[in-house]
Structure formats: structure tokens, C-alpha cells
TrEMBL record:
Stated name of the protein: G1 family glutamic endopeptidase
Native source organism of the sequence: Ferviditalea candida
Organism domain of life: Bacteria
InterPro entries per UniProt: ConA-like_dom_sf, Peptidase_G1, Peptidase_G1_sf
Length: 271
């Protein structure tokens, strides 16, 4: 689930190249953040030094996604939808979201990550856990053994071991399970670490973001310590020339933040 963006450098991250009037109309209150993207929002820390980040961790609550608004249809469209439904073909709008932590992907094309998916597909909500190493597709974590529901309290850890391999761990405190993938081979440059809400790539294109309401990333750590997040590390997501996902400013400890669907910036954590 790689970050896609036009690369015009500004500050610590990158900004997409967008019309000036969109910045004025839609990015009010978001200009204090360091980057924007069509598929990522949240926080990322980065470095020009290879090997700068060898571990990342964080916690979040799996957000509950909402069904997209029903679009008006003409009589002919209704007939077409009926025919397609007889053929078992969905005619509803599918929307997607993913909450995750990772290393790399912000300033390069590598990425190791794990998280949860929150989608609305074929008229139903869909929740599951996954891990991924680009350029390979995501690996779904067996939902029969590791079920995920909206509201579950998750914790994720990714760390490089002394033998050079990596361990990916995902814990669902609500369901009471722990998944661990050890001995993972990953050779990315380790120049960024992230805590992200994403609209993933689906069928070779960036998906429409699901309305995930609001959630929080907590206990964020990098290299075993506080990442000391600042507003410049944060970024917003825009689709169709409007902000669709935006984080809060970091909390007072600089290791957590809230994030919300839409353009209204949520309040930061109080402690």
C-alpha cells in the first residue's frame, strides 16, 4: 500500500502539486501539516540516512466504516443494475480504508507494513488483518483464526532482528489473539516510519476512501523510543480536489494523534 504523490519538495516531506484555489478553499487548517497525498494521511518521520529506522510500533482502534451514499439513478440504470444483479455482479460503490504502521514507502518505493482493512464491498462491511512487503500484494491474516471487528483494540510491531531478518507482530487485545511472522526478509533502506490511514490501491488504481469516522493512533514508537511527532510530520489525504482524511495535531507527549474522515481536523489527544 504505497504512497502515491507528485514529488515537489517542501519542508520535511512532499506536497502534491494542486491548483492554488484548492489549497485556499479545501486546505484551510491543513496547511500546517508537512505533506499531502491522494492515498495516505497520518504521520511519517523520515531521514536521509539509510538504516535510520529499525523498528516501529503503534496502537489503534479499528474504525467502523459506513455505507457510501446512494446515488440517484435513471430508470435505464435501474434496469441495468437489475440485470447485473442477476449475473451476480455488484453495482454498488465499493470503498476502502486501511489502518497501519510501516517502515519505508514515504520517500522510496520499498515498504514493510501491517495493519487492518476496513472496507464496504458488495454492499457489506469487511474487516480483516494483513501484512505486506512491496512489491508483493498484501497477505491476509487468516480471519478464521485471527478475526477482526470494528472497535477492536489493535497493537502492531515491526522490528529488525540481530540476524538481519524482520518480525511482524499484530495483536488484537479485544479478540485475544497475537499473530507473529518471524524470519521475514526485507532489504529496504529504512529511511522512514509511518502511522497511516490509507485508501489502498485496488485494481491498479487508488480506491475511493471509506467513511471510517474517526480513530486514534496511540503509543507510537520508533527505534524503541518516542518519535517526538510534530505537525510537520503530519499529512492529509485529498480525493476529487477535497480533503477526505485529516489527522489532528500530535498529543502533548508527541506520540499519538487522532485522525478523522472528511476535512474537519479533529482535536488532538489531551494526554
Amino acid at each position: 500500500m504505497q504512497l502515491w504523490r507528485y514529488k515537489t519538495k517542501k519542508g520535511r516531506g512532499h506536497r502534491v502539486r494542486i491548483p492554488h484555489e484548492v489549497q485556499q478553499a479545501e486546505f484551510i487548517g491543513a496547511s500546517q501539516f508537512g505533506w499531502s497525498s491522494t492515498n495516505w494521511s497520518g504521520y511519517a518521520v523520515s531521514s536521509s540516512d539509510k538504516g535510520a529506522y529499525s523498528s516501529v510500533s503503534g496502537s489503534w482502534t479499528v474504525p467502523a466504516v459506513k455505507a457510501p451514499p446512494i446515488q440517484p439513478v435513471t430508470p435505464w440504470q435501474k434496469v441495468l443494475q437489475f440485470i447485473l444483479s442477476l449475473l451476480g455482479i455488484s453495482t454498488g460503490k465499493d470503498v476502502y480504508s486501511a489502518s497501519w504502521i510501516g517502515i519505508d514507502g514515504f520517500n522510496n518505493s520499498n515498504l514493510i507494513q501491517t495493519g487492518t482493512a476496513q472496507n464496504y464491498v458488495n454492499g457489506k462491511t469487511q474487516y480483516y488483518a494483513w501484512w505486506e512487503i512491496l512489491p508483493n500484494p498484501e497477505t491476509v491474516i487468516d480471519p478464521s483464526k485471527y478475526p477482526v471487528n470494528a472497535g477492536d483494540k489493535m497493537q502492531a510491531n515491526i522490528s529488525k532482528q540481530s540476524d538481519g531478518t524482520w518480525t511482524i507482530q499484530l495483536i488484537d487485545w479485544t479478540q485475544g489473539w497475537t499473530f507473529a511472522k518471524k524470519g521475514v526478509n526485507y532489504t529496504g533502506p529504512q529511511t522512514s516510519a509511518e502511522w497511516i490511514e490509507e485508501a489502498p490501491e485496488v485494481n491498479l488504481g487508488i480506491a475511493a476512501l471509506a467513511d471510517y469516522g474517526e480513530t486514534a493512533f496511540q503509543s507510537c514508537m520508533v527505534n524503541g523510543g518516542n518519535p517526538q511527532l510534530t505537525a510537520g510530520d503530519g499529512g492529509v489525504m485529498y480525493q476529487n480536489n477535497q480533503v477526505v482524511s485529516i489527522p489532528s495535531l500530535p498529543g502533548p507527549q508527541q506520540n499519538d494523534f487522532n485522525i478523522a474522515y472528511g476535512s474537519q481536523m479533529p482535536k488532538p489527544p489531551s494526554s
